[in-house]
Amino acid sequence: MTTPAPRTRARVPVGVDTTRPSIARVYDYSLGGKDNYDADRAAYEQILQVAPRQGDVSRMNRRWLHRVVRYLAGPAAVDQFLDIGAGLPTVANTHEVAQQDRPEARVVYVDNDPVCNAHGRVLLEQNDHTFFVAGDLLEDGTLLSNRSVMQYFDHDRPIAVIVCGLLHHIEDELNPAAVMREYVDQMPPGSYLAISHFWDPADEDPELHTRARQAERAFVEMGLGSGWFRTREQIREFFGGLALIPPAPLEPPGLVELDDWWPMGPWPLTRCWEQRLMLGGVAYKPDPAHEPVPLRARRG
Ligand SMILES: C[S@@+](CC[C@H](N)C(=O)[O-])C[C@H]1O[C@@H](n2cnc3c(N)ncnc32)[C@H](O)[C@@H]1O
Question: What mean pLDDT is reported for the chain?
Answer without folding.
Answer: 91
